Amino acid sequence: MNKAEKRRQMMAISIAPVGKGAHVGRYVAMALRALEGLDLEVQMGPMFTTLVGTWPVLAEAVARMQNRLFEEGVERVSVVIKLDAWRDRDADPTGKMQRLHAYLEQRG
Questions:
Q1: How do residues 10-54 score in pLDDT, each as one tens digit?
Q2: Residue range 46-89, pLDDT digits in tens
Q3: Quick count: other Cβ atoms within 10 Å of Cβ 24?
Q4: String of b and e for 26-54 (b: at least 16 CB within 10 Å)?
Q5: Residue 81 and residue 40: Cα distance in Å, rounded?
Q6: Residue 83 maps to which CATH number?
Q7: Total structural domains within the chain
Q8: Cα separation of 42 and 102, whole Å?
Q9: What is the pTM of this model?
Q10: Residue 98 sits in which domain range?
Q11: Which three-class secondary structure state does DSSP give residue 106?
């Protein structure tokens, strides 16, 4: 594994079955259960789930989530991914939010 692959990165992922109606929470829960046992931080949100881990683990997470839905009989899966990767430091979602709140408190 190269140096960048050892760094913890942050990924926002949205995964949903296509053609299963408007209420897909049951499928999202199935996909999230597939992450059990992986070395990840998981923060669920109403539209995306944030995962923090090394790139190989994040890639494994995407594959597991997709495969879980396929195993449940879903024939088409929509996946949206946004990746925040640094070469010089690990991802820090808590620090990122603290800095944002500090900027919001500033005037001008």
A1: 999 999 999 888 889 999 999 999 999 999 999 999 999 999 999
A2: 999 999 999 999 999 999 999 999 999 999 999 999 999 887 87
A3: 18
A4: ebbebbbebbeeeebeeeeeeebbbbbbb
A5: 16
A6: 3.30.70.930
A7: 1
A8: 24
A9: 0.85
A10: 3-105
A11: coil
